[in-house]
């Protein structure tokens, strides 16, 4: 749990600073988290960490290798401002208090809706994604520890990290923190699904180090699921997951343009190719039935009162 807490705190600090946290600052944050764990009866919040940094107890002064209050404040000045950014400005109200809605790991599935934070900008959205992932994986850690002690049933878990590219591009160094979230999941009986639009999203990351680490996600994936992709993108995928000629033509055909015919179904809708290593891919098609069609409609704002689509109306 300590590593989860510290990793998330480092990721959030990296996000608002838009640069990496120094080694010295990481040591101080780690010691602050340890002190709060000893002193508090609840999980420490960002406010708690900021408060103890400002208080500067002897344990933190020792961690900073300083011998006076003035030198300690000078050493931690940038870190204090960074943490203050997490509870002020555009992020005010997000990290100011403990979590109010615990996750129920006994539920068949859990989905955390963070759609309302999109209007607040990419920074808040990235922070929300990192927090929900870290919180969920931390809950799995706790459940696994209880199972090891025989205090809870042992279960398997599947974590879905959608829109991965959004969480990685927030600031240099965030790829490392995202990797830390999932690195040991296999040993805890948890599989991870990472979803992104294309490998080109990873090429847009700020540093070569981040780009290499992000591509490592794809390299290490035991299973790759491909939706419709254009030839150029498919060539990138082929470098990581070899595809036969027929497989490439099939996946490319799913990315064909929409028909001009109003109401026509996109040729690639619901179609995927499942690849495991160099084995032949398995093409599958997902068909929605009954109320699922309306439930998973992502274009309701384009619909007119009489059932016609605004785009269809423009064509007419």
Structural summary, described in words:
InterPro entries: P-loop_NTPase. With 316 residues, this protein is mostly helical. It contains 14 helices and five strands. The strands form two sheets. It has a three-stranded antiparallel β-sheet, with no helix packed on it. The chain has a two-stranded parallel sheet with strand order 1-2. Strand 4 (271-276) and strand 5 (282-285) form a beta hairpin. It is elongated. The chain starts with a helix and ends with a helix.
Percentage beta strand: 5-15%
Query: How far is the first residue's CA from the last residue's CA?
Result: 59 Å
Q: Which range best describes the helical content: under 10%, 10-25%, 25-40%, 40-55%, 55-70% or over 70%?
A: 40-55%
Q: How is the main sheet built? A: 3 strands, antiparallel
Count of β-strands: 5
The low-pLDDT segments are: none
User: Strand-and-helix sequence, N→C?
Assistant: HHHHHHEHHEHHEHHEEHH
* Class derived from helix and strand content: mainly alpha
- Cα radius of gyration in angstroms: 23 Å
Query: Strand order, biggest sheet?
Result: 3-4-5
Shape: elongated
Oligomer: single chain
Mean pLDDT: 85
- Total of DSSP H or I helical runs spanning 4+ residues: 14
Structure at a glance:
This protein has 316 residues and is mainly alpha-helical. It is built from 14 helices and five strands.
